[in-house]
Amino acid sequence: MSLEDLYCDVDDFCRWFLPAWHRQLLTGGTRQRKRTSRLTLGEIMTILTYFHQSQYRNFKAFYLRHLCRHCRGEFPNLLSYNRFVALIPTALLPMCIYLHTRRGQDTGIAFVDATSLVVCHNRRIHSHPVFKQVARRGKTSMGWFYGFKLHRVVNDRGELLAFRITPGNVDDREPVPELTQGLTGKLIGDRGYISHRLCHELWERGLQLITKIRRNRQNKRMPMVDKLLLRKRAIIETINDQIKNIQQIEHTRHRRVVNAMVNVLAALVAYTHQPCKPSLNLSQNELKMLTCSE
């Protein structure tokens, strides 16, 4: 998506969202100064998202070397870098609502996974106070880390259906009931989601949880369709690679928790605007056969 198309889409959302948001705000009865910024909220959200579509790995270099030099025509009222960083927290709630409007379609086949968001090296945990109150130590198949977990549910087209950010020590299965609200069909996950209670809870809502079995458990008969879907679970691993290496969702340079959360939201928004997402390329007939099979 071009910068112009991205700005038009974000600006249309802001024109609808801001009046409704301001009508719902509570006041304390005292008059407060509301100084407007030279940059509109739509421009701030566009810049944050556009960074994750660029080839830059450092936002400061992107802002000073690219925006300030080559995008003055698109953003004539650019602020200093320090002032822009101070305005990033204002985009937290609007970015979250905007990402919700980018939600994909429930096709009957969904994939769930969790990936780590490291905020610092393990050796620097005690000297890294920024995320002391919210980040926790966790463990994945790659080893121990310090930070958060990003839980995601995507459909067979690679579209984002739901997400949640938790501390690193939260079990992968805990957010699944909330993430899958309203979904039906089949949910494919790895061995970390094996749980009789979770499987029964999802089944009562019309959602079948499909996972591989552990090596120390007795093998059970599984339909061939489910076995094929388990082989296609790599689609969400591909998405993990893209949001970490293309969208720059993970880095260790954050100095504020709010700015880190906005960075995650902007990266996910940039992914939803990606024209070619990892997909199983299933036709409607194939999708119907897979979701209706017993």
Low-confidence stretches: none
Strand content: 5-15%
Helix content: 40-55%
Please give the alpha-carbon distance between the first and last residues. 40 Å
User: What does the radius of gyration come to?
Assistant: 21 Å
Mean pLDDT: 88
Number of strands: 6
CATH class of the largest domain reads Alpha Beta
Shape: globular
Largest sheet features: 6 strands, mixed
Number of helices: 11
Keyword list:
about 290 residues, alpha/beta, Nucleotidyltransferase, domain 5, 2 domains, six-stranded mixed β-sheet, 6 strands, about 40% helix
Question: What does this protein look like?
Answer:
With 294 residues, the protein is an alpha/beta fold. The protein has two domains: 3-22 and 36-101; 109-255 and 281-292, 2-Layer Sandwich (Nucleotidyltransferase, domain 5), CATH 3.30.420. 41% of the residues lie in helices and 15% in strands. The chain has eleven helices and six strands. The chain has helices at residues 3-24, 41-53, 59-70, 81-87, 92-101, 176-179, 196-204, 224-231, 234-245, 257-272, 284-292; strands at residues 109-118, 136-140, 143-155, 160-167, 185-188, 207-210. Strands 1, 2, 3, 4, 5 and 6 form a six-stranded mixed β-sheet that branches. β2 and β3 (143-155) form a beta hairpin. α2 crosses α10 and α5 (92-101) packs parallel to α10 (257-272). The mean pLDDT is 88.
